[in-house]
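Entry under discussion copied across for reference:
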Amino acid sequence: MYVREDIDVKNIDNYWSGAVWTMKRIEDAGKLDEYETFITNYFADDPEPPKWTELNDILWHDSDWVLQQLDIPTEDDESDVEEDGEDEIVKAILDSKTE
């Protein structure tokens, strides 16, 4: 038997494990509508609609890729910013000691 249901891909309660973290990032960035459009287009050519597990796994295991598609900084992007900021602080401290 085959059952088809319309699902709300923007409802964070429908996800589990690592996908919840990714959905929170998308929600915090105010990009839930963009996510819905993106994921709809991603599966547009598939003959069968995706299963919940497939949607969840993309968000969980390919979170950086999904966030990049939505122009949301990834953890790596944010750590680069933090490290750059720390480098500037260390440089300023060292410069002040040489004066």
Remarks:
- Residues 12-73 form one domain.
- The chain has five helices and no strands.
- Residues 80 and 86 are 10 Å apart (CA to CA).
- Residues 75-98 form the longest helix (24 residues).
